[in-house]
Amino acid sequence: MGRQPHGMTLLTLVVAATVGVFVVAITAGTSAAEEPRVVKLGAAVGDADPALVVEFETEIGRELDVIRVFKLWDDEFPTADDLALLEAHELVLSIKASTSDEVIAWADIAAAQPGDPLHDQMVSWAQQIAGFQDRVHLTFHHEPEAASNLENGTAADFVGAWRAFMTVLEDQQVTTLGRVWIMTDYSFHVPADDRRHADGWYPGDDWVEAIGADAYNWHDCRPDVSVDWTSLAVNIEPLRRFGLDHPDEELMLTELGSVEDPLDSERKAAWIDGAASLFLDPTYDQFTLVSWFNIDHPTPGTTCDWRTSTGDTSAEAFARLAAAPLFGGQGENPSPWCTAERDGTTVTVSWTDDGGTHVIRRNGRWLSTPGGDVSEYTDVLSPEQATYSVRTWVEGVTIERVCVSTEADGNGEPPAPWCTASRIGETVVLSWTDDGGLHVVRRDGRWLATPGRGTATYTDLQPGDAGEYTIRTWMPGGRLEHACEWA
After folding, report:
1. Closest Cα to residue 269, out of 232, 233, 312?
2. DSSP state, 296?
3. Strand arrangement, sheet containing 485-486
């Protein structure tokens, strides 16, 4: 079966919500020659009622790119509400193998032949989608591994049904924006021998354009189930790593949400801010959609209110996310999780404390292990062009984020050189930043002088045709060598 084009926008129609939760890397930045990266922003709002969608868009201060809609096997598409949404939005259309009173076995769908009622229904779906194929991303039975779908069949049955459904679409010459395979985030990190493990449910790269997950921070909103407060970085790390094995597929968060912490009214807002900053990193460039599940208590017996309006600070945080250019907004992007600010040979690494154990790494090697509750580290002997990352152990997961490099000198001016060489008459005067180390002056790669500590200048009385001066600095922990710039 042929591949469909990638990298396009999407639509979301899906059916229910289930969930669950590893090692992350983070860098940031876009070169001047590159187009700024944009992640589409979507949401599931009520029953995809256009009036509720407009109300939510008013709250966040912008129009959404994508709306999630959930359909059963025998539902009509498009309804009047669907048509209203399609005027200004894309959809991710999820079709579940169930009716309001019947569960349909995936094996029966996989085995359906032309003339069978199940095959006829697949043809009907293809015909209904055909007029909107440039506005719809399609998924068949999202979260198939969830316990609520046990009656539908096994992983092998699901894969067979997925391929049968997509084959009918191809036979009918219907090509959507893409086929989105959607699992719970939990399916990507359960043990490989677990029935729910994502690998067993994957239809294959030739049958999928996008890999999606529904990711939630449940905390204590379910009766008799209490889990740690979980960051989005931890939740989606196994999905991100799965994506690395399938580099031609897009990654999508087709459902996303967090509850409030009853003991901390600011915590959900911080969770949303952290989620926003995560996608600044090119490590997450495979992600093309983030879609919030803005629905109250979808599961009977729970108090899981995922709406952004559960608190003033939460609403403000989501409005900030929506306004970020990263998500197609007109405001400011969030601050990166980690920065490395250089001032001469000193680099200050600052990060957001997430309650984990942190290790500072420089150029891919261990540098320091600060104590708990520390969110800053100063490297006083930093080589030029050094890169920094913070490796975190949190909630049994290893997450590594590469820090965004900045310069201490502000106002857009480049920092002053650490060392300068000025030719004055028959001499060359060297000046450098005294960093408390023992300095050795070198000319054209050879020793020239060893000034005493506390000295920051040296005059070469016989420079001749000297081409290059460097200052070699010895300090506790290592040695640095700086080339002097000619003034």
Report:
1. 312
2. B
3. 457-460, 427-432, 419-424, 485-486
Which runs of E-coded beta strand occur in 73-177? 90-96, 136-140
- Domains annotated for the chain, with CATH where assigned, are 40-327 (3.20.20.80), 338-407 (2.60.40.10), 419-486 (2.60.40.10)
- Residue 141 CA to residue 125 CA, distance in Å, equals 14
CA distance between the termini of the chain = 65
Give mean pLDDT, residues 82-101.
96
CA distance 272 to 6: 28
For 443-481, the pLDDT digits (tens) are 998 999 999 888 889 999 999 887 899 988 876 556 777
Q: Which of 164, 34, 8 is nearest to 92 (CA)?
A: 8
pLDDT tens digits for 324-377? 999 999 999 998 888 999 988 899 999 888 778 899 999 888 999 987 778 999
Chain centroid to CA 137: how far? 20
- The answer to whether 437 and 443 have CB atoms below 8 angstroms apart is no
Q: What residues pair up with 196 in beta bridges, in sequence order?
A: none
Backbone angles phi, psi at 465, to 5 degrees: -100, 40
Q: Give the Cα separation of 371 and 106 in Å (integer).
A: 53
The whole-angstrom separation of Cα 171 and Cα 153 is 25
Integer angstrom CA distances of residue 117 from 101, 126, 140? 17, 14, 18
Crossing angle (nearest 10°) for helices 155-171 and 117-130: 60
Read off the pLDDT of residues 197-222 as tens digits, 9 standing for 90 and up. 999 999 999 999 999 999 999 998 88
Instruction: Provide the residue type at 129 as one letter.
Output: I
Percentage of the residues of the chain whose pLDDT score is greater than 90: 62
Give the position of tokens 């690998």.
199
- Say how far apart CA 190 and CA 211 lie, in whole Å: 17
The structure's pTM equals: 0.76
Could you tell me how many helices (H) and strands (E) the chain has, helices first?
Answer: 8, 24
Chain centroid offset of residue 150 CA: 30
